[in-house]
Structure prediction request, 570 residues.
Amino acid sequence: MPRKSSRGISVSDALKSSTSILHFFSKKPDPEAIEKIADEATIIEEIVKSKETPLFQDHNSPECSIAESEFYQDPELLSQRDISAPSCPICSYPFSRLSDSEALIHVNQCLDHLEPVKSQSPEFLPPINIPSAFTKIMLNRFEDKQWQFTTERSRADRSKRSYLRSCPFYKIMPHMRIAVDAFKFGKIPDIDGYFLSHFHSDHYGGLSSSWTHGKIYCSDITANLVLQQLRVAEAFVVRLPMDKTIWIEQIGVTCIGANHCPGSVLFLFEKQVQGRWVRYLHCGDFRANPLQVLHPAIKGKWFDTIYLDTTYLSSKHAFPAQDDVISATSQICLSLSKEIVDDDDPVEIARREAGIGKFVSQKTASRNGRGRLLVIVGTYSIGKERIVMGIARAMRSKIFAPLYKRRICACLEDPELLNLITDNPIEASVHITTLREIRAETSLEYLEQFKPHFSRIVAFRPTGWTFTSSKRRAENPSVETIIEKWKTPYGIGDLKPQRGSSATVTVYGVPYSEHSSFRELTCFCCSLEWGRIVPTVNVHSARSRDSMKAWCNLWKKHQGYHVYDGQRQW
Ligand SMILES: [Zn+2]
Ligand SMILES: [Zn+2]
Prediction:
């Protein structure tokens, strides 16, 4: 691309005359954002006038030959600049305005203090390039120290009450005064905004009606739940729109669907620090899919740090796609709901082979019918609605849920779900149950309550946790192998009834997960460009961190791989 020189237009004009930056950040130009940027431009212009020197000047060096005013306008230049701009590996502070020695001092201070150092940089110094080896060594050294510090501190904090413990570094976005899913540490120093990724207790823990530590930013659905279930004062709750960048002070925030539970989001945080965009992607809890990577607010950008939901970041977690699990479970339910047994039905054949129902005379059952089938799906908190709805749709049934769950469902802004939900357990063949433990015994007890309306029960226990692939897999696979060969197909033959199952009660564990599989994490991280991945789950043992780090290092070598326009599944 040919280098351009400054056309000498004012910052304000450049911003007002061009909406390209807005297209870059949101699907539609947002009038509020236009206003905000125009306001900022005016402020910048005031500063320029007061100093009587141009704010952005051409340094005649290759790095600076792209004038800043043009740099603002052109998303392509913007992302290009981001990737090449050297920054502190610890706190992402851009080095473009520091000398070599100042940059070194900065990094060393960051290393010593473990908290980002707020640099006072002399303006207009020529940019420098830090050799990548330097950055890499520093980053590794720093990361080790950071985790060591965090684990030592959390050990020391163990006897303290929760709100007196210190918030671990991976919940705080450097330079932004933002904390994510960090409500149990009381008031966190230097934090202005508390972001909540979704309504699961391991994330909102600490939030209650007595919360007064600052604004809570979350999606609409999460806000409904925070208000209704936790009775947090309305004045503290800020609803964020989906898929649209809004500006909170100087920080651009975009919520992107996390494909986890209803209302769950990925947070994209962007802030311009000294002419460079510092960008973090916080994944909360998520099940990765190509739509996230292809999202207009994500695609083509460079991320300083990805805060990654590493629940299943281990090669043994190879559970299948949600849609495949939903269709297999729906098919099983449909087959078993037939009161007259169809001996040729593949589901019945599989059950006979598994020895279920072999003591029941098939002929008797066929002649008299085997009674009405009740299906229960265990889910305590929010989540798993899609599999329940899939089954209900297949069986053309309503869904019964206890009062506690019905109240939660009312918050989820899902008309189809609301339409299916009923308070009459007899009317619905599909029940959501909050049973903590779904086993043959507990399911049978559940069935007893509803006799004679139902005479058989099938119970599903959805989790990705217990599922490991039966296939033998290479120990040190390449990224290509993981992506091409490690996809796990799933069909009715894979649903194996659990111990204690009989003709009356059948329990299935189903590999239905609302977190990413190992392969999906690989696809996600190899389809983005980033500087650093910070794991947010399974971080308390050094061994687990080391193993996760090894995968991240492998992915880092394959950035920009494996996603195409319009792709919906990995
Ligand atoms: Zn969650
Ligand atoms: Zn979680």
Summary: Confidence is low (pLDDT under 50) at residues 1-84, 115-131, 359-363. The CA atoms of residues 394 and 433 lie 19 Å apart. The pocket of zinc ion (ligand 1) is lined by residues 198, 200, 260-261, 285 (CB under 6 Å).
